[in-house]
Amino acid sequence: MAWPIETDRDRRTRITLERLWPRVAARYERFATDHGAEWQAFLVRLHRHFARLFDLTVGLYGDQYDYLYHLETLLDGMVQAWIERPDELKALDAEREGCPDWFQSHRMLGGVCYVDLFAGNLEGIRESIPYFRELGLTYLHLMPLFRSPAGDNDGGYAISSYREINPALGTIDQLASLASELRHNGISLVLDFVFNHTSHEHAWACRARGGDIEYQEYYHMFPDRQMPDAYEAHLREIFPDEHPGAFTFWPDINRWVWTTFHSYQWDLNYHNPAVFVRMALEMLYLANLGVEVLRLDAVAFIWKRMGTACENLPEAHRIIQAFNAIARIAAPALLFKSEAIVHPDEVVRYISADECQLSYNPLLMALLWESLATREVRLLELALRERFALADHCAWVNYVRCHDDIGWTFSDEDALRLGIRGHDHRQFLNMFYTGRFEGSFARGLPFQENPRTGDCRISGTCASLAGLEKALQEETAQEVELAVRRILLIHSIILTVGGIPLLYLGDEVGQLNDYRFVRDAAKANDSRWVHRPGAVSAMLERRHIPDSIEAQIFERLQQRIALRRTHSVFGGQRMEVIQTGNPHVLGYVRHHGGERALVLANFSEQPQGLAANLLRLHLMGYDFVDLVTDRPIPYQDITLEPYQFCCIQVASQ
After folding, report:
1. pTM value?
2. Which end of the chain is more exposed for a tag (fewer CB within 10 A), N or C?
3. Based on the number of CB atoms within 10 Å of its own CB, is 466 exposed (0-12), middle (13-18) or buried (19 or more)?
4. How do 293-296 and 221-222 pair as beta strands?
């Protein structure tokens, strides 16, 4: 029998674990004796994933004198987290390891909301579970709810403690209880893991501000402008209106602190292995609360290197991959969702089974709105054809809007292939969605507008951007109907294109822009608050009032959600874009579980015709049915009504 040859890499990995593990295991001998099966399950995963974790951390920190100390600290923390992990979560770990593609189901449907704006507090969220079930949610993302500074806190993204809830929302025990109750109702809890920065009020930052050198090394701090100036020669400004460059001077410590985003958000120093270990343990703490998916915030910015833009560096990927390996060992049910609002080529590099299994799809969001504005699907079609495919065991999270702004993240190279000048096209889209373009149906606000260049991003609720606000205030019932159809059309795409559809709660009843945010000094300079309105409960109550706008949108959207849940063809990621022969009509074929369906979507307010042979060519039959209306479609030329969405299958014999 031939024995496998041990490589130098394998030998180094084996020897390292053999030297470190006995000291770690000795501290947990009693648990290993009393819980033999659980201990063995942990050991199996440790040996399966340690080589990857070791390779990644050696690459990041192996040249530091105390690397092995930090590695042992990490191993000890992982064991402790596993021991403390509740039994029902350990059972979930085993279930998800046996079905790793559970999130590919056609029954998946996500919702996202701010706790206070949607339901007041965590108890209000718990009381909303029957509504979530009515809507069909299987995934609930609660926007940042941890303790953060009063006043300016970037909507909660300036975290002062990863282990304390904002007291106005509830307690950490309530959050853990809510996670369990959601799970028992078939809903996975999703939270943000804000790991690029903490707030200036975090305990680590307070220690640093008090002069503790150890904690000053948790951040990037400099005594003068020499190093900041050298870095900033290659950095872009994220929020230039608030502070120029990427650094803020803090007079109480006489230091320049790296603050990529806001001055009160201090970037963590991942060159320091202590920061990596501490944040890994914060991650496992969240997993043990019952969080099943962590949205990794600002992934592009977490590693800094002189002479670069400090975005999307290889070390950023290695850190996330190392976090992934840690989760596979100590909390294997946990998934990662990347948030990278960068060039499409960079977005996809964060997506793999060994890094982020899920990712927001900002390109699809941007191009859905682009197609509504232009009434053409050329850019959208190209992006879906060439940029939608993902590796196995991964999925897009598709959405029409989120808590943030809409940035036009399409590739200039893609646009140029279609004869479109990227910069000029963005200018048009900005004009269109701020209502400055003649004939625009949209009512959005500019975000971070540069008056000199005209550059900006767009704020606004789905309904206001889709024309409902303007139609209700200025136009007729016909324009109201067109706006409702736009809302339904783009939601129908995210429900059927492949991956996990995500609804911003309130959009399902047509929430409009709320301009009252300007009355709050802490929000007045951030137009994104226009699409974060509260008081959704009153609108939800009107969803069952016949002929109300809320009912029109809710009931028709529910039909599209039911369509997805009923047909397994909408599971998975497999999707083939087709050429419809009409620039206003998007077409794609879904095939999954032995089923096949043709989707057609008219992005124009005018009827559009298609050749009959399209059905025969892509469905290979002569008798067809539209799953949206449940009506037969004869084998003849097709006319799609304004903003019509149809999903066609061969009729059952």
Report:
1. 0.95
2. N
3. buried
4. unpaired
